[in-house]
Design brief:
This protein is mainly beta. It has one domain: hypothetical protein yedk fold (Alpha-Beta Complex). It has 3 helices and 12 strands. Strands 3, 4, 5, 6, 9, 10 and 11 form a 7-stranded mixed beta sheet that branches. Strands 2-1-7-8-12 form a 5-stranded antiparallel beta sheet, with no helix packed on it. The longest helix is centred in the last third of the chain and has 10 residues. The two termini are 21 Å apart.
Length: 231
């Protein structure tokens, strides 16, 4: 699965890749994003692609309990995502792309689980397929604010990353970005399922990193987390 990832890139990089509209923002780097953190995701607005802050961990619009009672929804498996009740409405209506500079996976070793950082072989931005929804806490009353949230879609690992984990995020090719974002609006409930495949071999690189990444929080969110260490 994908339980931690990084976002450290500039507005200009994302503007060039996704054709973002709206005012430029000073994006802050994050090297240890954990579930329920606020992340940046790309959606389609009336004027074009937008970069929108979202809660990582989908809360469906129909959810009647509290946010704390939502089950684990930071990942959605590609195979049942179009039919699974927790995700199917968002899959049919609301697609997003989560830009990532890389993500972490853990390999079992005799001395414990060793984290690895996995990123694009060319050092570029990874475009992770996601879905999003907007939820309003029933307990907040008529004037309560809504929560926009999302999940990352994961699929079977390719041969390269299978040495670490049997699942990986769906990494969209640049040629498929528009098709994915538009699939929920005009492609029907199943539109875009063919894009939910493992990444091509040779697209990624990886190396072992400090076990400090196991600790989520402001004190462990700096660039040294992705520096190589001896495995």
């Amino acid at each position: 699965m994908c339980g931690r990832f990084t976002q450290h890139y500039s507005w200009s990089e994302l503007h060039e890749l996704y054709g973002l509209v709206g005012a430029a923002r000073n994006l802050q780097p994050h090297y240890n994003i954990a579930p329920t953190d606020t992340i940046e995701a790309v959606t389609v607005g009336p004027a074009g692609p937008l970069l929108v802050p979202m809660r990582w961990g989908l809360i469906p619009a129909w959810w009647k309990k509290s946010a704390k009672e939502v089950p684990s929804t930071f990942n959605a498996r590609a195979e049942p995502v179009a039919e699974k009740p927790m995700f199917r409405a968002a899959f049919a209506r609301h697609r997003c792309i989560v830009p990532a500079s890389g993500y972490y996976e853990w390999k079992a070793t005799p001395s414990g689980k060793q984290p690895y950082f996995i990123s694009a072989a060319d050092g570029g931005v990874l475009s992770i397929a996601g879905i999003w929804d907007r939820w309003k806490d029933p307990a907040s009353g008529a004037g309560g604010a809504g929560v926009t949230s999302c999940t990352l879609i994961v699929t079977a690992a390719n041969a390269f990353s299978r040495a670490i984990h049997d699942r990986m995020p769906v990494l969209l090719d640049r040629a498929d970005l528009d098709a994915w974002l538009g699939g929920g609006a005009g492609g029907g409930a199943g539109g875009g399922v063919d894009l939910l495949r493992p990444a091509a071999e040779g697209r990624l690189r990886m190396w072992p990193v400090s076990k400090r990444v196991n600790r989520a929080g402001a004190g462990d969110d700096d660039g040294t987390l992705i520096e190589p260490v001896a495995a």
